[in-house]
Design a protein that fits this description.
single chain; alpha/beta; Rossmann fold; seven-stranded mixed sheet; 7 strands; 48% helix
Length: 229
């Protein structure tokens, strides 16, 4: 990635710390409420795996964790994030088992979880390769990884989406949060994040099996799933 890892981590943590109190509102309004449906779709896939233990990595404000709790009420769910102000928002939603942790150095034992989920978080990590390796370490053999993140749709929607992403979204977000720079960063990070087959290729190169891509809203968002051998 373009920035040194420590600089990248510091910058991203600072962005999320500043927008934590208005993060959920901005997500719901800027996605037209679609972010709720995307999390429900992700939780539906996890539910089919019938996990006993789930790590929701980069849990942030806890919206996916809360959706997973509803879909998998018998599973032990742990939420982890490296940004304390975001975790405080999750705590206010009465989500248990939350911990401050860096995805590149997780404080969990090998094979501790049946399933790991990452919603809109892998893209922000200083090293995708390192993060995928660390996730694989804490997954049990045969365990499942689910990544929910933004992508790039195909033309002609791509051209409209890029205009919204780089012009309309940062302007609206600055009105909602007072932090345009965080959403300029968002747009740039989406452009640089591996998309569709490229992401599946990264998962397989990292040692995962059965990598699969499910586009949502024409590819504006995507769900990636894979298993640890």
């Amino acid at each position: 990635m373009a920035l040194d890892g420590s600089i990248q981590s510091h910058r991203v943590r600072a962005y999320f710390s500043r927008i934590a109190s208005r993060y959920d509102l901005a997500n719901h309004l800027l996605s037209g409420g679609c972010d709720v449906l995307w999390r429900i779709a992700a939780a539906g896939k996890v539910q089919k795996w019938q996990p006993r233990t789930i790590l929701d990595l980069a849990t942030g404000s806890g919206d996916l964790a809360r959706t997973l709790q509803r879909a998998c009420p018998d599973a032990l769910l742990v939420g982890a994030d490296f940004c304390e102000p975001m975790l405080q928002v999750a705590r206010d939603k009465n989500i248990p088992h939350l911990t401050v942790a860096d995805a590149l150095q997780l404080p969990f034992a090998d094979g501790a979880f049946d399933t790991v989920t990452v919603a809109f978080g892998l893209r922000n990590m200083a090293s995708w390769t390192h993060a995928l390796s660390e996730i694989q370490r804490v997954l049990s053999p045969g365990g499942h990884l689910l990544i929910l993140d933004f992508g790039l749709p195909t033309p002609p929607l791509l051209h409209l989406y890029r205009f919204y992403l780089h012009n309309v979204l940062p302007f609206l977000a600055s009105l909602l949060t007072g932090e345009r720079s965080a959403y300029d960063y968002l747009a740039d990070s989406i452009e640089s994040f591996p998309n569709a087959d490229a992401m599946c290729g990264r998962l397989e190169a990292a040692g995962y099996q059965d990598a699969h891509y499910t586009p949502l809203l024409g590819g504006v968002t995507a769900i990636y799933t894979a298993t640890r051998p």
